[in-house]
Amino acid sequence: MTVNQAPWPLRFGWVALLLLAVAAPWIVSPYELSLLGRFLAMSILAIGLVLVWGEAGILTLGQGVFFGLGGYVLAMHLKLAALNPGDIPDFMTWSGRSDLPWWWQPFTSPLVAITAVVVVPGVIAAMFSWLVFRRRVVGVYFALITQALALCFATLLISQQESTGGFNGLTDFSTLFGFDLAAKGTVWTLYWITVILLTLSYLGVRWLMRSRFGTMLRATRDGENRVRFLGHNPTPYKVVAFTVSAVLAGIGGALFTLHAGVVSPALVGVVPSIEMVIWVAVGGRGSLWGAVAGTLLVNFAKDEISSAMPDAWLYALGLVFILVVTLMPRGVAGVIEDALRRLRPVAPAGKKATITSPAGLGGAP
Predict the structure, then answer these.
(1) 262 forms bridges with which residues in the sheet?
(2) Residue ranges of domains in the chain, CATH in brackets
(3) Is 215 helix (H, G, I), strand (E, B) or coil?
(4) Which pLDDT tens digit goes with each residue over 258-287?
(5) At how many degrees (to 10) do helices 331-343 and 270-283 cross?
(6) Under DSSP, is residue 59 helix (H, G, I), strand (E, B) or coil?
(7) How far apart are CA 172 and CA 182, in angstroms?
(8) Torsion sign (Cα): 323, 329, 330, 334
(9) How far apart are the first and last CA of the chain?
(10) Which of 40, 152, 165, 176 is least surrounded by CB atoms within 10 angstroms?
(11) Distance between CA 334 and CA 6 in Å, rounded?
């Protein structure tokens, strides 16, 4: 049985969607463009979740930590860039501080801030995952540990009012590298940068999933003890997958901060981390394009429902999750892929069947 790439109509559909995304600034309103930019930034995080959850089978409930780290390190630079020399952020003054904390000072440099968006989440994720995976902590135990990590991170941010802005977080940004963040040209450019980084993340993770590395991840997911018996150590593969997902979460958090103009503990705690998993579950944890679709669907629905009935959103989210788990275990992507298979012509008797792998649709190879 041979495996082909996605059929040309489907490839044409992906190209059309990408062109439509690029043309969005001319099509939608400024408010809708701002929402779309935020949700596409979140989709970068969702792609990383497909790698660590869908491919490696590692359920993590703490991605909000790395999302927040990416957002906070960039926000620190944005706050400092808006100050006059010698001044400190306003919330520090209100809290009684008279000097800038030493660990804030390197973020006066834009290069340090941009580098930290990738390095800080990556290093912390690598250290944390190595300590945990080498002890062979898996399954629900790992999920609970990451959930506790998210709770600790949010609590730390809230408790350190004089250094992190407390519950209100960091906000009131005006410029980025000298460009006015409120200017139309800057807003459009940031949106296109988000689309480009999302596309690169999609292609990069898709390449990883199709490589030998992806094969080892799936083998570890399906039978870790068997992999060890065959003489392979699955720990480095799991550490790399978790680190890559954290880096993507950090990039998504930084982009979200630029689009939303704020980063706060409310975006990085336990509940947001669980919501991130639900995005991927709705779209399909084994499909990259499904994760992006699920992120957009859930968050646009959240915006609409929260605006009309603020108290109903959490109930609606819980209902959606129950329906997906019971009726669509492979998410929206699985439903669409099954429909495409049913529409595919049956190969004549005596000839090899030709199938399209889920990887051709953007899912796991």
Answers:
(1) 171
(2) 2-361 (1.10.3470)
(3) helix
(4) 999 999 999 999 999 999 999 999 999 989
(5) 0
(6) coil
(7) 11
(8) negative
(9) 15
(10) 152
(11) 15
